[in-house]
Amino acid sequence: MIGRDEQTADRLTALQEEVGQLRQALVSHALIDQAIGVVITVGRLSPDQGWDALKHMSQHTNVKLREVARCLVEWPARGRVPEAIRRALPAAVEYARARTHADGREDAGEVRCGRPV
Question: What is the pTM of this model?
Answer without folding.
Answer: 0.70
